[in-house]
Amino acid sequence: MCEVCGEDKCINSFPNATQVSSHDHEHDVCHECFAMHLDVEVDSKMWDQISCPQCPSLLQQHEIQNLATPECFAKYARFARRAALSSNPDYRYCFSTSCESGQVYEGQEPVFSCQECGHRHCTVCEVDWHKDETCEQYQARNQVQKGYEAESEATLQATSKPCPNCQARIVKSDGCDHMLCSQCQHQFCWACLADFIPIARHGLHNHHPDCPNHRPAGDINEDMIAHANAMLLMANGRFQEMLEEIFGFRLQ
User: Fold this and answer.
1) Nearest to 112 by CA among 199, 125, 100
2) Are residue 100 and residue 81 in the same domain, yes or no?
3) Where does the RING-type domain lie (predicted)?
4) Which among 30, 82, 139, 158 is least buried, having the fewest CB atoms inside 10 angstroms?
5) What is the domain range of residue 192?
6) Is residue 188 a part of any domain in this protein?
7) Pairwise CA distance, residues 54 & 5, whole Å
C-alpha cells in the first residue's frame, strides 16, 4: 500500500533499489506519488536540496531522472545547469523580462547581447543598453534625473498629505481645511486629518485637540459652526449624502 495515496498496488508500481540506489529503506511511495512529490520539490527548493518523500535524505541526479516526469526533470536540469554556470564570475543573465537565458560573457565591450533573444544590456551600468550614450554620459544623466526625482518627492511630501482613508496623496492649494479626496470621496480636516462627518454632525470638538479648528464641547457657537460645516458638505456636491448622513433623511 502506498503511504501517500493509500492505494494497494502491485510491487512494480513502486521504486526499486536500482532506481533509488542511495537509500537503504523500503520504498513505500508509488511512482505516481513520487513523481508528484518531485514536482513540488523542484518548484519549491534549490536544485541540490531535493529530498526523498520518506526521509530527509537528498536524492541524486540519476534518482530524480529515474522517477520524475520528463517535464519535471527538464526543469531540474535547467536549474542545475544555471546554478553551475552562475558560479562562473563571467556568467550573466539576460535582462529581458521574457527571457530566462544567460551565457558566459568575456567581451571587452560593455554591451551584452543575449544569444537566445538578442536583448542587450550594459555590463558596467547593469541596465538595458543605453544607445548613443557612453557609460559616463548615462551615469551623469541618471544622477541628474535622480536629483530631480528626489527634489520632486521632497516637494510632494512637504506640500501634500495622504488621505486618511485610501492614502492617496492630496495637495491643498487654497481654501478652508475641509478636504474631499477625489480618489475615494472621504472627507477630512486638512489640519488634523479627522473625519469631517462627525465634525459636521456633532461639532468642532471632534477635531483633534491640538487642531487649530478645535473648539471645546459645549461652546455656545458650536451649533452654528456645525451647521456651517454642514453647508460646506453641501457645497461639495453631496446634497443627498449629507442629508442622510447628518440629518437622517433624503429629499424626495
Assistant:
1) 125
2) no
3) 1-211, 163-215
4) 158
5) 169-247
6) yes
7) 13
